[in-house]
Amino acid sequence: MEKILSTTRRPDITFHDTGEIYITARVARILRLNGDSCLNVAIENGEYLLFAEHYENMIGNHTGRCYPVNSGSRYYRANSVKLCRAILNACGVSGRAALMCGETISINDKPHITLITRTTL
Description:
Blueprint: E1 13-16, E2 20-23, H1 25-31, E3 37-44, E4 47-54, E5 66-68, E6 76-79, H2 81-91, E7 96-107, E8 110-116
């Protein structure tokens, strides 16, 4: 017997080589994303930690800026070619990396989510 769906788990965050980043509502809620947030990734002890920088009344262009897909939605998107290519390189894939997120830790009173880069969906 052969399964049609190899996995039924949906990714928490997806990085595309075009720079598009898709963020689920769960991750957006943990990182407290809004229209004045920018995504970034820190590397500590070989682990990739996703976090958001929050700015008051953001003016101008910022890479990794988050925006809701629909008004009132908690599903967010962001754009950053540099960030996406770095994550794709870390995962050893090309085109797209659909990742799961691990535990949430707090560094300097900012929530950081561990990205699981060893296995992609």
